[in-house]
Amino acid sequence: MSSSLPGLIDPFALASKGWHWQGSVPFARLPRLVAMIVNSEGAAKVELTFSQIGKVVAVTGRVEADLEVVCQRCLEPVRIEVRAVVNLGVVTSIAEGDMLPEPYEPLLLEEEKLRFSDIVEDELILAIPVVPRHAECERGGHTSRKIQTKAHSAPFAELAKLMLK
Ligand SMILES: [Zn+2]
């Protein structure tokens, strides 16, 4: 089995074969992800199986990566360990997606084929918090407190100056 990154794939055809892919996907191949991370060196570890499970054309497996994003408090990089379990059901309409049994999330196929790396990229992007932060972000806390103190003390400083005159 070749581990080079697949391009456009037909999930139905692959599922009928029980296709399995294992390998690493460099972040550099995922432009939407690169726009969201600080350090684009590195790669995601990916293991995906396409198979027919009951009535579901399923994409299952895992996507793992250590991502560096900007902490929204101190603006320093913060590391996020993504360990995503993938349970996707391939559908061709939103109505079909609504009928998917648990635990499958819909993977909407808009054309006949889809880009393999898009599946990986979507899983990684979904795993990034909307407002990423360090669990213990001391620096950010101090900065905002300082700004607050300054804002409060300014009117009193002005008053003191007036009284001295
Ligand atoms: Zn921080």
Write out key terms for the chains shown.
165 residues, alpha+beta, 5-stranded mixed sheet, two-stranded antiparallel ribbon, binds zinc ion
List the helices and strands and how they pair.
Blueprint: E1 8-9, H1 11-17, E2 20-26, H2 31-34, E3 43-53, E4 56-70, E5 77-91, H3 94-98, E6 105-108, E7 114-115, H4 116-127, H5 138-164
Parallel strand pairs: 5-6
Antiparallel strand pairs: 1-7, 2-3, 3-4, 4-5
What does this structure look like?
A five-stranded mixed β-sheet has the order 2-3-4-5-6. Strands 1-7 form a two-stranded antiparallel sheet. 20% of the residues are buried. Mean pLDDT is 87; it is low at 141-154. It is elongated and about 85 Å long. A hairpin with a 6-residue loop joins strand 4 and strand 5 (77-91). The chain contains five helices and seven strands. The protein folds into two domains: 8-134, no CATH class; 137-165. It has 165 residues and is of the alpha+beta class. The structure holds zinc ion. Residues 71, 73-74, 76, 78, 133-134, 137, 140 line the site of zinc ion (ZN).
Give helix % range.
25-40%
Rg, nearest Å: 24 Å
Instruction: Give every kind of bound small molecule, once each.
Output: zinc ion
Low-pLDDT stretches are 141-154
SSE class? alpha+beta
In total, the number of domains comes to 2
Helix tally? 5
Count of strand segments: 7
What's the main sheet like? 5 strands, mixed
**What global shape is seen?**
elongated
Strand content: 25-35%
Strand order, main sheet: write it out: 2-3-4-5-6
Order of helices and strands: EHEHEEEHEEHH
> Averaged pLDDT, please?
87
The rounded distance between the terminal residues' Cα atoms is 85 Å
